[in-house]
Amino acid sequence: MSLPRLDVSTLSHNAAKWPLPYRVLLGCLLVGLVLLVGEVLYLSPSRERLQGGEARGHALQQQLAEKTQLATSLEARTEHLRAMEDKFVGLLRQLPAESEVPGLLEDVARLAVANGVWVEGITLLEEEPRQLYTEQPVQMGATGAYHDLAAFVSALAGLRRVVTVQDVTLRPEGALLRLEMVAKTYRGAIPSGQALQALEPGPRFVYDPSTLRDPFRSPTLQAARVPGRPALSPDLTRSRGLLEGMSIDQFEMVGTLSNGVQAFALLRAGSLVHRLAVGDYLGPDHGQVTAIQDGYIELVELFPDDQGAWLERPRTLVLNVNS
């Protein structure tokens, strides 16, 4: 069975004889067919390209707005960056151009005396070059009471020269504490023709032990650390005695003696017992015995403050009833 061949010319000739409603319907079908073919072949791809172009245009508008805002703030950002660079260069110029180790050692000795600390050793370590400055580490060991060592470290960190304290270790050593630490001072490379700026000191932390306790001692053995009072300087030409080379914390009172005219205090340090009278000296801070009682002795110590003025501080050694 074969299908009849479509004869377009015959169909169009016959359609012309159709009634008007059929011809209108046929025309509508032809128009719809043309619109469908146009939508599929031409309009749909063009619409997709248009939507893609609109999305890219919106993204470009956003980028333009962001870059416009950035360009508006560029001048302010440039000024801020220039100010930061000037401040950084100023900080570098505050660093000394030469090593300050001699001055640092003098400060260490002065602050150790001022705080009743015995510095036992100082070792200069190798310099550590950095990109813009050089570090000079100094390894040091010191012995003293807890509050004295804390005040010593606080005073070191408060020096006008740039000094940082690192790698701090603390351990008991007999009646005292042993402190090991690394103190670092710094020097920078200053271009020729530029003067060294004075270091602007920041807020300084001052260690105050008046409300703190020694964590290495029993609460019943805590002793108040009385601040010093202004005093005359001691006789620095006086020959120092053997007992002035030892910290007072190494001594304990074990008794008293009396010949009816003069009283003596018996102090033990290690395996030795020493006899002291009023006026004798004890400890590294020019401590002088001022009174001897049955249960205690009184001393007055002299030490310099951070500014070099001399202060006096009373101190009491209580009899050890278990000795």
Q: Quick one: how many beta strands? A: 13
* Backbone shape: rod-shaped
How can the largest sheet be summarized?
Answer: 5 strands, antiparallel
Radius of gyration from the CA trace?
46 Å
Structure class: alpha+beta
- Please count the helical segments: 4
Contiguous low-pLDDT stretches (5 residues minimum) are none
Q: Describe it for me?
A:
With 323 residues, the protein is of the alpha+beta class. 33% of the residues lie in helices and 28% in strands. The protein is built from 4 helices and 13 strands. It has helices at 8-15, 20-93, 101-114, 146-157, and strands at residues 118-124, 128-129, 133-144, 163-173, 176-188, 229-230, 252-258, 263-269, 272-276, 281-282, 287-292, 296-304, 310-318. The strands form 3 sheets. Strands 1, 2, 3, 4 and 5 form a 5-stranded antiparallel β-sheet that branches. A hairpin with a 4-residue loop joins strand 7 (252-258) and strand 8. It is rod-shaped and about 160 Å long. The protein starts with 7 loop residues before the first helix and ends in a 5-residue tail after the last strand. The mean pLDDT is 77. It comes from Pseudomonas khavaziana. The chain crosses the membrane at residues 20-43. Keywords: Membrane, Transmembrane, Transmembrane helix. This is Pilus assembly protein PilP. Pfam families: PilO.
